[in-house]
Amino acid sequence: MTYKERFDGRKFDEIRPMEAKAGIIPRADGSAYFKIGKSVAYVAVYGPRNLFPKFLQNPEKGILRCSYNMMPFSSGGERVRPGGNRRSKEISMVTEKALLPVVDLNEFPNAVVDVFIELPQTDAGTRCAGICAAAIALADAGISMRDLVAAVSVGKVDDKLVVDLNYDEEAHEAGSTDMPVAMMPRTGQISLLQMDGDLSKEEINKCLQMATKALRQIYEVQKKALKHKYEGESI
Amino acid sequence: MNSELRQNVLKSLEAGIRLDGRKTDEYRKISVEYGISVNAEGSARVKIGETEILAGVKLSVESPYPDSPNQGTMMVGAELLPLSNPEFEAGPPGIQAIEIARVVDRGIRESETIDTKKLCIKEGEKAWTVIIDICTINDDGNLFDASALASMAALQNAVFPSYENEKIDYKKKTKEKLPLSKAPVSVTVMKIDKYFIVDPLPEEERILDARLTVATTEDGKICAMQKGGDTPLSIEDVDRMIDIAIEKTQELRGHLKR
Fold first, then answer.
1. Does B148 have pLDDT greater than 70?
2. Residue A53 — φ and ψ, nearest 5°?
């Protein structure tokens, strides 16, 4: 049996419909909403602000701190116990690494920029949705950035290479491979790469090509969200 | 800093208006949106001014408590997410979050809106547990009333997932709603000096003397109260605050589906 048609009718290299907004949380210094398919991320950025306890400070440059959290009612299965787990801690860490190359924190020694990613609704690809929203929120907060970061998961469902897997595809009975990729779209540099499943080197290459194409579309949506917020404002 | 803020607030209250131009008993614009998270069994978004809360309901099947073998249970959790306010810290719920969760819990529980006997699947063995989780998106004051309203809306929105052969299939939702009979709503009245206000801004919350949260059902029954703040209240104060709360309850309840 082969995976002939995607469960939701998309083409194999087609990403789910997206929606992005900048500046949705008035109390935050920067914020964003990013929705891809049924996965939704809210992100708030606070900072640069003082970092305590003091021993965490870096006197040479500011620190980026990310936290990824699924709301208790966000998952398609049982309630997610609040307070985080090993998975959310690891995702927080890789998200931080994914965003770090684009932010310039040299001007903010001893300070921290906090990025809070919250997911009210999930359908796979949530770390990528979180990264996409976080990049918009960091820009919205006015943090100096070299580029945005866009992220998407690619992989294989049964024997077909696909872009932007949803939950049903990840759970495909014939097996599936998930490879989240984050990229700085202007340079094509990869800042997050994870994989679990089974891919040959050729397939990985092919997947990365597919990801690059998809990430360009995501990048446009991110830029549009930022432009939309600041439309009509003089600089 | 707070004493200066207090002077400013009091000065404008003397003229009968608030920092943002509202009257003392005036709420900001309220909106209730149902079904904002498709995976939850029920969910809602409440906005009061720029305060935004999401509440979601998850259902699970557990064994009932030995002292009530023919009843299901209900639980409320609140998370003051660090995303929603620069002063909120990550980590386990602090006393502020715990108080909100417990006050919302009491309003719902004591109104007996959920018929917990109807949550029982098999006496002494299996019953539904209803868990309401409150998450703050933006804190611009009055988390108490917004949380209670969002929780009630999420309950109204909830349906049972499919349950067959002692297994829940969360992917399959039934059309069966939760057994609800009432719609408890909370109104919190603040006392600042000799003035009473509702729907406070964060600045007003910072200088309040006392607050009283009053949960009432549509038949006028008061089902839960909580006094907060460092200053005591007289019996007359309490009387007046309950009057204001009951009056404003109608307005809040008007935003819920019937």
1. yes
2. -65, 155
Distance from CA of B226 to the nearest CA of A (A): 25
Q: Give per-residue pLDDT as tens, B171-195.
A: 999 999 999 999 999 999 999 999 9
Does residue A177 belong to any structural domain of this protein? yes
The answer to whether the CB atoms of B37 and A83 lie below 8 A apart is no
Name the residue of chain A whose CA is nearest to B161's CA: A77
Q: Does B81 touch chain A (CB under 8 A)?
A: yes
Does the pLDDT of residue B152 top 70, yes or no? Answer: yes
Residues of chain A predicted below pLDDT 50: none
Contact B186, B145 (CB under 8 A): yes
* CB-side neighbour CA atoms (13 Å) of A166: 20
- Domain B2-253 matching CATH 3.30.230.70: the answer reads yes
Tell me how far the alpha carbon of residue B89 is from its chain's centroid: 21
Q: How many domains does chain A have?
A: 1
Mutation site, A19, A25, A27, interface B, largest B CB count within 10 A: A27
With respect to residue A10, please indicate whether it lies within any of the assigned structural domains. Answer: no
In a domain, A235, yes or no: no
Q: Taking the domains of chain B in order of start, what are their residue ranges? A: 2-253
CATH of the domain at A211: 3.30.230.70
Of A25, A73, A121, the CB nearest to B84: A25
CB distance A178 to A167 below 8 Å: no
**Is A118's CB within 8 Å of B81's CB?**
yes
- State pTM to two decimals: 0.96
